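Page 37, top half.
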Amino acid sequence: MNAKMLVLTGAMTVLLAGVGCSPLAGAPSADHMDVAVSIDEFTTSPHISRDIVVAQGGVLTVTLGANATTGFSWSGDATIGDPAILLQTETEYLSPKEQGVVGASGAQVWTFDALEKGTTSVVMEYGRPWEGGEKGVWTFELTVTVS
């Protein structure tokens, strides 16, 4: 085998070895974490708490089941204990049609950037937002540690 072929074979071996060690596409990693809670989970337990670790500079996505046709909705802005640690960058409601499932419930999705190392809380409330409407019927509290 000539030197050029030997170098090429070595390079291919390194590339293939790296592919075998890489995380699966779409799999959560410390720099992108996904948290999801369905409506079924909230009907069983209306006040849910979770803990999660995300890397500094990473992204956190929280998806909570919702059904806008009932008049109930999640608060658009999450309550963040320490905004120096975590920053909400986006929120959107996904209707069942947008999710490709007709007749199902929708979902509210929040996206956060992990800014600084530390621990903070994130709280979302589900209720009827108008004056006199029920508040905090469902709550979701997430303790986020940015490492």
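Page 37, bottom half:
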Amino acid sequence: MTSRAHLILGLVALALAVLAAFLWIPLDTDSGLLETVRRRVSIGDALAPTIAAAFIGLGGFSLILFEGSEGDSVVPSRENMFRIFALTGIVVLAILIMRWAGPVTLGAEEYRLLRATPPWSWLGFLIGGALLVTALVAGIERRLSFRAVFVGVGWSIALILLFDLPFEDLLLPPNGDV
């Protein structure tokens, strides 16, 4: 991909993120980012898609800012294809672990009763999320390290602290589906 292609892709991603955040999401959701009813704060319908749009915009902005040189190119190779399939497998495995860690640990019926109660509500998210982030960091570094594990566990805990603790009525994935 040439430098010009990076610039075009970055501009398109940034434009789509802005359109989504300021036009599509407000027109498509019934509530805002956060809703306060009787001093109780809960997540609104627009929070998750707005965060996703922000990340898309950040990615587009990064492509514009660090557009690369004219000599950069992306050529599919066996190694690239292997890495894509390996990462896809890791993501699928992490999601399966997120989904089944709680029910396998406690039993399906007991977990269903405790799925909104810490630490059981964090179990699958913590294990699956830590595996996912650790595997992605190890894949980028091309080796497994204690630092990769620390980053994986740390980010999973940070997301739990950021999303689960402040909101009483939020269930971390996949607890809402169990």
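Margin note: The chain has a mean pLDDT of 86.
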